[in-house]
Amino acid sequence: MAAKMFRVEDGKVIIMGTECSQCQHRWFPPVSFGCERCGAYGDDLHARDLSSTGQIYAFTTVPERDGGMYTLAQVVLDDGPAIRAIISEPGPEKLAIGDRVEGVSDGAEQVTFRKTSP
Ligand SMILES: [Zn+2]
Predict the structure, then answer these.
(1) Chain-centre distance for alpha carbon 24
(2) Helices (H) then strands (E): counts for the chain
(3) Which end of the chain is more exposed for a tag (fewer CB within 10 A), N or C?
């Protein structure tokens, strides 16, 4: 996630999404060509802060060049959109579909997600 797509407030990652004022559909990342549900565009699209809490819908491991692996997940945010996210902890052997996760920032360029449910 690029820096301009999120910010941190009181230690919480806020994802900067978009909402359609015609049908209230929300999505991320932002697009300017129109609402992906109803087609509204222009002034009907506005910035909408999204909580970074959500649930794992699916996940997989991806090999890295150095021989390591990272976990890539589809996370359905509590505020609506499904996003692709790196799960920084725990490892895949301790993850399950439906686990609760939240975004964490390294303070600069990256947001990853970590499990919050036991
Ligand atoms: Zn719409």
Answers:
(1) 18
(2) 0, 9
(3) C
Quote the ligand 1 centre to 114 CA distance (angstroms).
31
76 DSSP assignment? E
Q: Using the predicted structure, report yes or no on whether residue 57 has a pLDDT greater than 90.
A: yes
**Is residue 108 pLDDT above 80, yes or no?**
no
Name, in order, each residue with C-beta under 8 angstroms of 26's C-beta and a sequence gap of 6 or more. 17, 18, 19, 20, 48, 50, 79, 80, 81
The arithmetic mean of pLDDT across residues 92-109, rounded, is 90
CA of 52 to the centre of ligand 1 (A): 22
The pLDDT of residue 3 is above 60: no
Distance 45 CA to ligand 1 centre (A): 8
Which residues have a Cβ under 8 Å from the Cβ of 105 and sit 6 or more positions away? 6, 8, 13, 111
Q: Which residues of 109-118 are buried (b: 16+ CB within 10 A; e: fewer)?
A: eebbbebeee
